[in-house]
Design a protein that fits this description.
3-stranded antiparallel beta sheet, globular, alpha+beta, 2 helices, 21% strand, binds zinc ion, 3 strands
Amino acid sequence: MPKVFPFHAAADPVYHDNDQCKKGQEVPLERRLKGNEGKPLCKECAELDQLGK
Ligand SMILES: [Zn+2]
């Protein structure tokens, strides 16, 4: 399962932790901030994580 270190974009209301997530992929590497800043996990990431992807 390609889980990655949790990251988020400053303007994003959610954080991502799965590299299959399209919304997460849209965040350029240089704009990824480490951690979740107390934000909720992105829905797509949550689904991918549940599916074990
Ligand atoms: Zn995501």
